[in-house]
Every structure is written in C-alpha cells, then in structure tokens.
C-alpha cells in the first residue's frame, strides 16, 4: 500500500506546487544523468529497457503541457550503452493550442570505473530538432516558445555521474549549435489589436532566439527496498551565457536570462518483478531565472513512467 499511497500523494501535490523546468527534458534525464538509476556491483551485467512515460506540466502563464515519450536503452556491452528518446507533445493555453513531435535525443554512455561500492560513467550525445518553432494562431498571430514542442536547435550534450547504493551525483553540459537563428517570431506587439494582448505581454520577446549554454548538477539520495524505492534531490542548472534575440536586425542579450535555476526533485518506484516497474517523478521550483524566452520554465512537473527491462 505504501507505493500506491505515495503515488496518489505526488500526483495531487503536482497540482498545488511550483517547479522550474530543466534546460531540456533530454539533457536532465538522459544517459549518465538519468534519475533513479539502480546501482549494481556485478561487473558483467547488461541491462536493456524500453520506457513509456507521460508528463503533465503547468507554466504558470496559462499553459498545460503534456508529453508522451518512448525511451529505449540498449547495452552494447557491460560497459557501453546507447539511448534514444522521442517525445510527442500537446500544449493548450490562453493563446492557443499546438501539438507535434519534439526533438530526438541520442546519447552514448560508457562505464569507466566499475567497483564493488560505486560506478562512474561518462556520456556524450546530441539533440536533433524535429519541427519549426514558428507556431501561430488561426488569426496568424505568433505564439511564444512555450507552445513549441521543439527547441529548434542541434545541441551537444556531455555528462558524467557517480553512483552507489545511496547516492547519484552527476554533472552535465549542454550547448546549442546554431547554423542560423531559430525561426520563432513571437513579439507581443503583434497582439496589439487582440483581446488577448494583456496575456501576450506576459511572455518574453523571442524573435531569432539563441539560447545560452547550460551546466547542470544532479544530487540525488536514494532509499531502496525489495520492491519499492524513493529518491529526493536537487537539480540546479546554470545558464552560462545570456540568451540573445534579434531586434531591428541587431542581436541583443536578454536581461535576466543568465544565471541559476534550481529544482527540488522527489520520486518513487515500484518493481512488479525483475522485468517491469512503474516510476513517478515530481519537481518543485526553488530558484527561477527572471527571463524565460525559451519557454522551459514550468510551475509544476509530474511524470509517470512504465519501464520494461530485458
């Protein structure tokens, strides 16, 4: 009963609490940086899995975001694995509705130290954009980045993690790679004749947006029992450079877009047997950046996932 009661508690809590989104879902939860990793001292273990998950998030500006994701991890050997992720998202808010496939994430992870009491892994990966970020209403009014299922950039992702029976400590780096500006065209001035103009002015101008690079830490404490487990931790993300936008053909830095965002995280899992388990994750905002033109700031995030291991 304890895992079931905790599941209901976390789902209810997600509707009344506040959370800050990560720089991107793939960056924070891929490869060596994936939450709720199971430590194994067995050096030749090979673990493959397919995971189906559903996320519900709220932006605090009126949007509800849902995303269903398929996630596959395949071990090449006892020390090497690859991971592929593809999400499909729905966004509904005061300004409109959108849906579509999100960005594809691909990572390679290698276990470089595998001891009886701890493991150390490193990873490298990329994010491949799937769609244009230039969404608009039926009246052809531009929508902010909160409504885009894609971030519109190719990204380099690097990371490393230390894991033992009780702790997961990870560090990651994500750098957008721009061949050109993303094509988002949101400006609140375009809504000046709309009855929703006051709502539109709540969003940051994002024409020609270029996101800055991010450094992330994952600090996670795990408590594991025979069939169920719990974890609690922190997820600070520091944006190294300020975001930039294009105004009057001149690139300008967005004030308040650089600096720290931090999330408190809570999760639980239940093992049905050796091959399958259900997991729940929840985040709570502790620190938020002032400017969020990329649309990644969330006021609450809850994810439920089913994992099949083979």
Give the overall form. Answer: elongated
CATH architecture tag:
Beta Barrel
Indicate the radius of gyration in whole angstroms: 20 Å
SSE pattern: HHEEEEEEEEHEEEEEEE
CATH class: Mainly Beta
Number of domains: 1
Distance between the termini: 27 Å
Q: Strands of the largest sheet, in order across it? A: 1-2-3-5-6-7-8-9-10-13-14-15
CATH topology: Porin
The number of E-state strands comes to 15
Q: Would you identify the CATH H-level superfamily?
A: monomeric porin ompg
Which consecutive residue ranges, at least 5 long each, have pLDDT under 50? 1-21
**Mean pLDDT across every amino acid position:** 88
Q: Characterize the biggest β-sheet.
A: 12 strands, antiparallel, barrel
Determine the strand fraction and express it as a percent band.
Answer: over 45%
Structural write-up:
By secondary structure, the protein is mostly beta strands. The protein has one domain: monomeric porin ompg (Porin, Beta Barrel), CATH 2.40.160.40. The protein is built from three helices and 15 strands. The strands form two sheets. It has a twelve-stranded antiparallel barrel with strand order 1-2-3-5-6-7-8-9-10-13-14-15. It is elongated and about 65 Å long. Mean pLDDT is 88; it is low at 1-21.
């Amino acid at each position: 009963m304890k895992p079931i009661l905790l599941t209901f508690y976390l789902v209810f809590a997600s509707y009344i609490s506040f959370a800050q989104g990560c720089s991107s879902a793939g960056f924070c939860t891929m490869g060596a940086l994936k939450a709720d990793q199971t430590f194994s001292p067995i050096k030749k273990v090979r673990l493959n899995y397919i995971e189906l998950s559903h996320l519900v998030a709220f932006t605090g500006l009126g949007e509800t975001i849902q995303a269903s994701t398929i996630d596959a991890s395949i071990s090449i050997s006892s020390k090497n694995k690859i991971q592929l992720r593809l999400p499909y998202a729905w966004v509904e808010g005061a300004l409109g509705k959108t849906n579509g496939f999100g960005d594809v994430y691909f990572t390679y992870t290698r276990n470089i130290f595998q001891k009886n009491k701890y493991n150390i892994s490193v990873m490298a990966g990329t994010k491949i954009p799937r769609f244009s970020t230039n969404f608009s209403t039926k009246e052809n009014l531009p929508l902010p980045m909160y409504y885009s299922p894609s971030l519109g950039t190719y990204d380099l992702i690097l990371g490393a993690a230390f894991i033992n029976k009780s702790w997961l400590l990870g560090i990651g780096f994500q750098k957008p790679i721009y061949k050109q500006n993303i094509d988002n065209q949101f400006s609140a001035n375009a809504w000046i004749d709309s009855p929703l103009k006051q709502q539109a002015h709540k969003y940051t101008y994002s024409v020609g947006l270029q996101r800055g690079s991010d450094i992330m830490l994952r600090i996670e404490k795990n408590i594991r029992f025979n069939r169920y487990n719990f974890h609690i931790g922190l997820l600070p993300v520091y944006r190294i450079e300020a975001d930039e936008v294009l105004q009057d053909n001149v690139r300008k830095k967005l004030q308040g877009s650089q600096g720290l965002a931090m999330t408190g995280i809570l999760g639980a899992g239940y093992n049905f047997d050796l091959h399958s388990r259900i997991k729940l994750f929840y985040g709570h905002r502790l620190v938020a950046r002032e400017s969020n033109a990329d649309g990644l700031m969330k006021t609450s995030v809850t994810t439920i996932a089913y994992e099949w291991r083979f």
